[in-house]
Design a protein that fits this description.
The chain is an alpha+beta fold and 143 residues long. Helices cover 48% and strands 17% of the residues. It is built from 5 helices and 6 strands; from the N terminus they run αββββββαααα. The strands form 3 sheets. The chain has a two-stranded antiparallel ribbon. Strands 3-4 form a two-stranded antiparallel sheet. The chain is globular. The N and C termini lie far apart (31 Å).
Length: 143
Amino acid sequence: MTYKTTKAKLDRVFSRFIRLRDTNEHGVGQCISCGKFVVAWRIKDGKIQFIQTVHAGHYYSRGASKALYFDEKNVNLQCCQCNSFHEGNKQGYARGLIRKYGNNILDLLEIKAKNECYLGEGELKILLMDYEHKVKQLTGRKR
């Protein structure tokens, strides 16, 4: 795999991980920004099928900070309305992060966002294997 295809595959797997992590055994989770309950996935023909209108939304956008691109605290379940139509609903997202991770999370993410970060192909492959394993573990628990 090339760097580009490895990163694209990691992005898909990481997104699945976030949507599995932030939902219950029925595929229902709560948008980090607005609090609305959404169905992120369902079982169809014995396999998990992800719903495209539920996103793994970034507090610091992918372009704003490479260091937070695959950061589990920076990426959380988000409804399509907040992520796509309300520009991430940053105020709601900030409140949701504080509820989920505590008062210091915004400071922590701000510090991390300022770090320079370049992931080479080797690092991407390691992350890909790690998140494939995490998805497999969560998939087994959700069925």
